[in-house]
Write a structure and sequence with these properties.
Layout lengths: L3 E5 L3 H13 L3 E5 L2 H11 L3 E5 L1 E2 L2 E2 H11 L4 E6 L5 H9 L4 E4 L4 H14 L3
Parallel strand pairs: 1-2, 1-3, 3-6, 6-7
Antiparallel strand pairs: 4-5
Helix pairs in contact: 2-3
Amino acid sequence: MAQKILVIDDDNHLRESLVEVLELEGFTCYEAGNAKAGIASAKKNLPEVVIMDIQLPDSSGFQICQELRKFSKDFILIMMTGRFLSAEEKTQGLSLGADEYLTKPFDIPELSIRVRQLLTRKGK
């Protein structure tokens, strides 16, 4: 059975590109354009991996991390950002449960490799 990935990003083009490539890599993908829809989708579809933008119109990746970690410790959470993150911000995200950070623009095949490595480490 294909592993499930949820992509939460308000940038439609990036979100659709990510989903397209990840599906070609054999993952089943879900997508959401904001935090509220993303959290609801994660709770309903129980993806192994959630890839989220840190800055969303209705919330932040930090808040999504916190919310999803309260719900389950099993998600692999990957945060994306389009700007340089301070050490404090990275520490905050990691302490809230993020497993990985990616800075945009990033190489989508590299993302796929990172996702597979995280899944292997978590025994999924």
